[in-house]
Amino acid sequence: MSAATLLTLRSLSCGYGNQRIVQELGLHLRAGDIGCLLGPSGCGKTTTLRAIAGFEPLLSGEIELAGEVISRPGFTLAPERRRIGMVFQDYALFPHLTVEENVAFGIRKLPEKGRIAAELLALVKLERLAQRYPHELSGGQQQRVALARALAPSPQLLLLDEPFSNLDVELRRALSQEVRDILKARGTSAILVTHDQEEAFAVSDQVGVFNQGYLQQWDTPFNLYHEPATPFVASFVGQGYFIRGTLRAPDTVETGLGQLTGNRAYPFAPGSHVDVLLRPDDIVPAPDSALRALVTHKTFFGASTLYRLTLPTGEHLESLFPSHADHSVGSHVGIRVAADHLVVFPAEPATGVQRSA
């Protein structure tokens, strides 16, 4: 049995004045799930988060939380009445309060505030720092305090606005996984805003990719990578290149890599020009292959090496080889396609420039 829907956005549009930042947005978040709004700067993801929190009015559409409409044009339920918690980018801790007092601030009128604060500090592994002040903590510790404070009132939904952007790369990776574990342990639903896809994939059950105010796709991280709905999603998520092809049969495309057969029929007429998405893990070394590619660049990752390759047609690809298969720049390597499916889009008008994914 699937989990009930907690949050629904229906045909949501919002912005400032007459300028629409977000347009016709629709999505559902299930209870207990962690969602993410992902996209480049200025795409509308933070505006959407602020609208959910109650900080921005709607121009059209509505927001429903736990079966109750909390926003529509002309009506906005006050933020403090929404049972929504918020973790800000700059943590927004009170410098004159101890860690324990910060965590208990939103529940300071409850007689059990001490017990709740102690439980949450144990959950975020800061129980020994309860009497310290924010300036005595590291950035990661401050973020944990901000998370515990937001969880203290037991919100129905937690919103996180680029919560890891002020941390270094390694700490971001560790803390993002830790935050996911904490939210899952409490069964707390959440929506995260980020422009970092690695962070989005590590934390989230569902990810929405935004572009210029429109939601391009709301899906699992796996589907965003392997089944992108639009060329923008394909190029924004992960690495890869598009190569030009011609549809020879409903499931077969002629390309510079030879004939490639997918696992489905594509809705284009035979003879149509198409663009085929190929990820680095779709291209594998094949020493005996007649198809040879020129190595133009290599990046060593330890367990694997990422090679940038040029086909005889002049088209470019990237491929991940096991690191012990070492090839120098300027050499030629045998390759083949090892994709169990193909992602195919109608070809863009010829520009002389190959699209990079």
Automatic annotation (TrEMBL):
Keywords recorded for this protein, A-Z: ATP-binding, Cell membrane, Ion transport, Iron, Iron transport, Membrane, Nucleotide-binding, Transport
Note whether Transport occurs among the keywords. Answer: yes
Q: Which InterPro entries match?
A: AAA+_ATPase, ABC_SmlMolc_Importer, ABC_transporter-like_ATP-bd, ABC_transporter-like_CS, ABC_transpr_FbpC, Mo/tungstate-bd_C_term_dom, P-loop_NTPase, Transp-assoc_OB_typ2
Write down a Pfam family by its short name: TOBE_2
> What is a single molecular function from GO for this protein?
ABC-type ferric iron transporter activity
KW Thylakoid (keyword) present? no
Q: Which residues form the ABC transporter domain?
A: 7-237
Tell me the CDD domains matching this sequence: ABC_Carb_Solutes_like (cd03259)
One GO term under biological process is:
quaternary ammonium group transport
Q: Name any GO cellular component annotation.
A: ATP-binding cassette (ABC) transporter complex
Name used for this protein in its record:
ABC transporter ATP-binding protein
Source species of the chain: Pseudomonas matsuisoli
Lineage at the top is: Bacteria, Pseudomonadati, Pseudomonadota, Gammaproteobacteria, Pseudomonadales
